[in-house]
Write a structure and sequence with these properties.
alpha/beta; single chain
Amino acid sequence: MQPEEIHMAIKMIRQLTDKPFSVNLFIQDIAYNTVPELTAMLEILKPIAQRLSIHLEIPKQPFLPLFDEQIKVIIEEKVPVFSFTFGVLDEIFVQELHKNKTIPVINEYA
């Protein structure tokens, strides 16, 4: 998701619940996903997206926005739990998350 889409999704989640929630991001510098991989994932996520009235489509290249732009949204929004995979979270981001009382979690199952 692009940063603005992440902002909107977090806003929607907060309208639906007052419970803690998590946002997961991929830490990677290059967009290596292929259209077949994205198409398969789109099919898996389709029922959830429909339930939340979210339109999903395969983005144009580059497939993934820069991680630094995405994590700034997580920090700004003070997301309760932040999970990540495919990389190591920079210490600066860890410090910012801790300032917000956000719990960072390594997603080892992705």
